[in-house]
Amino acid sequence: MGSIHIQLGQLMFMLATIGCVFNLAVGVDTSDSVWLLKFKSQLDDQPGALDNWSDASDVCTWRGITCSPDQTHVMSLNLSGLGLSGSISPDVARLISLETLDLSSNSLGGAIPSELTQLQNLKQLLLYSNSLTGSIPADIGLLRNLQVLRLGDNILGGQIPHSIGQLPELRILGLAYCRLNGSIPAEIGNLKKLNSLDLQRNSLSGIIPDEISGCVELQNFAASNNMIEGGLPDSLGKIVSLQILNLANNSFSGLIPASFGQLSNLKYLSLLGNKLSGEIPEALNQLVQLQSLDLSDNGLTGRISLSTTRLTNLQVLILSDNQLASEISADFCSPSSNLLMLSLARNKLTGNFPLEILNCWSLQQLDLSDNNLEGRVPSSIAKLISVTDLLLNNNSFSGSLPSEIGSLSNLQNLYLFGNKLTGEIPVEIGKLQKLSQLYLYDNMMSGAIPNELTNCSSLTQVDFFGNHFTGPIPSTMGKLQYLVVLHLRQNELSGPIPPSLGYCRKLQLLALADNKLSGEIPPTFRFLEDLTLITLYNNSLEGPLPQSLFLLKNLSIVNLSHNRLSGSIYPLTGSVLLTKLDLTNNSFSGLIPPRLASSKGLIRIRLANNQLSGHVPPELGQLEELSFLDLSYNNLEGQIVSELQNCMSLNHLLLGNNNFTGVVPTWLGKLKEIGELDLSSNGFSGTVPAELGNCSSLLKLSLSHNDLSGEIPLEIGNLTSLNVLNLQKNRLSGTIPYTLQQCKKLYDLRLSENLLTGSIPVELGTLSELQVILDLSNNQLHGEIPVSLGSLMKLERLNLSNNQLEGEVPASLGKLTSMHVLNLSNNHLRGKIPSTFSKFPVSAFSGNDKLCGSPLLSCSRRSDRTHLSSNAVTGIVVAIVFSSTLICLVMLYIMLRIWLNWRKVAVSNLDHGTNEFKKGEDTKRKGEYWKVDSTGSASSRDDHSSTKTCVFHLKPDAMA
User: Fold this and answer.
1) Mean pLDDT in the chain?
2) Domain residues for 184?
3) Is residue 351 part of a domain?
4) Which residues form the Leucine-rich repeat-containing N-terminal plant-type domain (predicted)?
5) Contacts of 736 by beta carbon, 8 Å cutoff, 6+ apart
6) Is the residue at 71 inside a domain?
7) Considering the domain boundaries, does residue 517 fall inside one?
C-alpha cells in the first residue's frame, strides 16, 4: 500500500509539472479564458460571432481579444458592432490587465456592473450605442487611468457621479443621448486633460458651473438639447482651446457674454433654441477662426453688427427666429467673403431689400423669408452668381419679378410665395436650367404662363396657386420630364388641359382646380403611373372619363367635383390605394361600382349631386376606415343596406334627396362616431328609432321631408352634442319631448309641419345656444307661448305660426335683440304686441284677431272696433229688453193718468160751456198740459224732434 501511495504522488507531481510546462508554453493565464467564457455565457450570440471562443483554441486567437506582447494577459476586449444582446457579466472585471473594453454598438441591456471599477489598468471604456439601463457606477472615479469614457446612446438615468472629477487622465467623456438628470457636477473642472465633453440630449438641468473653466484643454463642449438654464457663464470665455461650443436647445437666458469674443480658436458656435436676449455682441467679430454661427430661435434684438469682412472664415450664419431689426452694418459683406449660407428668416426686418447682402458673391443659400421687407426685388440680385437657394417668401415685396433673375444660372430653389408680386413671369426664367423648385403661390401675378418655363428641364415642383394667371396651360408641359408637383389651383387659366401633360411621367401631384379649364380629360393621363393626387374641381370640364384612367394604380386622392363630367365613374376604381374620392356636382350616371370597396383605405366618398341610380352596394360595408359617405341628391333607391353598420368609423352619412324607402334602421345607433346624419327628402316611413339616442357624437340630425310618424323619442335628449335637429315635414305626433332641454348645444331646431300637440315645453328656454332658428310652425300646439323663450338671446328666427297658441305675446320676447325674422301668425293670441316688435311686418301677426299694437292697429282703435262675444251680446240684449219693458210700463201708467184727467176735463166742459174752455186755456199758458193723440204718441212741448221711446210717440196737444 505504501508503494502505491508513493506512485500516485509521483504521478500527480509529474502531471503538475507537465501543466506548468504547458502553461509556460501557451503563455496566458488560464483564468482569463475562464472569466471570458463566463462573460460569454451572459450574452446572446445569435449571429455566432463568438463561435471560436472555446477551450479548444488559444484565447489570444479568439475574436475581439488582444493579448499583451508576451501573450500572458488579455489587454483588450473589442466586440463592437457584432449584434450581441444579453447583459454584461461582472466576471469581465476579473481581467485585471484589461486596458480597453469596447462593447459598443450592440444590443446589450441591463446595468453597467459596478465591478468594472476594479479594472485599475483600464484606459478606454466604450459601452455606447446599446440598451443599458440603470445609472453610471458611483465609484467610476476609481478608474484612475481611464482616458476615454463613452457611455452615450443608452437608457441610462440618474445623475453624473461627482466622482467623475477623480479621473485625472480623462480626455474624452461621452454621455450623450441618454436620460441623465441633475446638474453638471462642478468636479468636471478637475479634468485638466479633458479634450471632449459631450452631454447632448439628456435631461440635465441647473446651470453650467463656473468651474468648467478648469478644463483648460477642452476643445469640444456639447450640451445641446437639455434643460440647462441660467446665464451663459463668462468663464467659458477663458477656455481659449475651445473649437466647438454647442449649447443649443436649452433654457439659457440673459445676454451673450462679450467674453466669448476671446475664444480665438472657436470654429463652431451654436446657441440656437434658447431664451437669450439683447443685442449680438460686436466682440464676436473677433472670432476670426469661426466657420459656423447659429444664434437662431432666441429673443435677440437690435441691429446685425456682425461683419463677414472681419469674420473671414465664416461660412454659415443663421440668425433666424429672433427680433432683429432691419439695420445691417455697411461692411456686412464683401466680394472676398466666404459666406455660403445666410438665414435672417422670421425676424422683424423692414424696409427694402438689404442691398448690403448682395456683396457676398459667394452666397449659395440666402433666406430672408417671413419678415416685413417691401419694395421691389432688386435687379442687382444678379450679383449672387453662386446662389442655389433664394428664399424671399412671406414678405411684402411688390412689383414684377426682375428679368435679371434669369442670370442666376446656379439657382435651384426659388421661393417667392406669400408676397404682393404683380406682373408677368419674365420669359428669362427659361434660362434657369438647374431650377428645381419654383414657388410663386399667394401673389397677385398675372398674364400667361410663358412657354419658356418648360425649358427649365430640371423642374420638379411648380406651385403658382392663388394668382391671376390667365390663358392656357403651356402645351409644351410634357418637356418637364422630372416634374413631380404641378400646382396651378385658383387662377384664371382657360382652355383645355394639354395632352402633353400626360408625358410628365414622374408627376405625383396635379392640382388644376379653381380655374376656367374646359374640354375633356386627356386620355394621355394613362401614362401618369406615379400620380397619387389629382384635383380638377371647379372648372368646366366635360365628357366621360377616359377608360384608361383605370390604369392609374397609385391614385390616392381624386377630386373632380363641380364640373360637367358625365358617364360612369368606374374608370376611377382601378387603384386600391384610394383614400378620398370627390365627384360632387357633375352629371355622372349609372350604378355605384361595387369595386370601390377594393380600396380598403377609403376614408371619404362624395358622390352628391349627380344622376347615379340603383342601390347602394352592400360591399361598401367592408370599408372599415370610411368616415365620410355623401350620396345625397341622386336617384338612388331601395333601403339603406345593413352592411353599412360595419363602417364603425362613419362620421358623416348623407343620403338626403334620393328615393330611399323603408324604415330608418335601428342599427344606426351603433355608429358611435357618427357626427352628421342626413336622411332628409326620401320616402322613409315608420318611427324615429329611439336607438339614435346612442349616437353620443351626433352634431347634426336631419330626417325632414319623409313620411315618419309616431312620437319623437325621449332618447333624442341623450344627444347632448347635437347642434342641428331637423324633423320638419313628417307626420310626427305627440308632444315635444321635454328632454330636448339636455341638448344644450342646439343652435338650429326645426319641428314644423308635423302633427305635434300639447304645449311648447318651457324647457326650450334653457337652450341658450339656439341661434339659427326655432321653428315649431304648422302643428297643433296649444297653450301659451312660454315666457322662458325670452332667454334665447342669440335667436335670429322664431316661427310659431299656424298653431292653436293663445294668451298674450310674452313681453320677454321683446328682449331678443338678435331676432330678425318672427312669425306668430294664425294662432289665437291676444293683447298688446311688445313695442320692440314694431319692426316686423303685419304678416308676422296676422290671423290673431285679438292682437293689437304696432305694426297692427293701435289697441285704442282696436277697442272701438272690438266685436263682443256672444255671452256679452246676450247680456246686453237682456238688459235692454228689461229696461225698455220697465220704461214702457211707467209711460203707460203716466198716459193712463193723463187720459183719466182728460176725461174729467171733457165732462166738465160739457157741463159748463165756454167758461170752462177759457179756464183751460189759461191753465195751459201757466203750466204744462199733455194730451195723447189718436196714434197713442205724445211729444214734448219744448222738443218737437225728440227720439222715439218704446212704442209711444208723445207730442203736445194740438190746442197748445
Assistant:
1) 89
2) 54-198
3) no
4) 31-68
5) 712, 751, 756, 758, 760, 761, 764, 776, 781
6) yes
7) no
Band of pLDDT at residue 881, cut at 50, 70 and 90: low
| Backbone torsions φ then ψ of 23, nearest 5 degrees | -65, -40
- Segment 370-395 shows an average pLDDT of 97
For the CA atoms of 373, 375, 377, 379, the dihedral, rounded to the nearest 10 degrees, stands at -140
* Cα–Cα–Cα angle for 627, 629, 632, rounded to 5 degrees: 155
Look at residue 511 and tell me whether its pLDDT is greater than 80: yes
Query: Reduced to 3 states, what is the DSSP secondary structure of residue 207?
Result: coil
* 708-742 residue pLDDT tens: 999 999 999 999 999 999 999 999 999 999 999 99
Q: How confident is the model at residue 885 (pLDDT cuts 50, 70, 90)?
A: low
User: Is 74 part of a structural domain of the chain?
Assistant: yes
Instruction: Label residue 950 left, alpha or beta by phi (over 0 means left) and psi (-120 to 50 means alpha).
Output: left
| Beta bridge partner(s), residue 24 | none
Buried b (16+ CB within 10 A) or exposed e, 35-65: bbbebbeebebeeebbeebeeeeebbebebb
**Helix 914-926 crosses helix 870-912 at what angle (to 10 degrees)?**
140
Ramachandran area for residue 401 (φ above 0: left; ψ -120 to 50: alpha; else beta):
beta
Do residues 112 and 140 touch, judged by C-beta distance below 8 A? no
> Count of domains in the chain?
1
Asked whether 620 and 643 are in contact (CB, 8 A), the reply is yes
Sign (positive/negative) of CA torsion 556, 650, 730, 765?
A: negative
Please write the tens of the pLDDT for every residue from 231-250. Answer: 999 999 999 999 999 999 99
Cβ atoms 83, 49 nearer than 8 A: yes
CATH number of the domain where residue 160 is located? 3.80.10.10
pLDDT tops 50 at residue 208:
yes
Nearest by Cα to 821 from 842, 844, 803, 791:
844
Q: Give Dmax (Cα) for the chain.
A: 214
Residues 6+ apart with CB under 8 A from 925: none
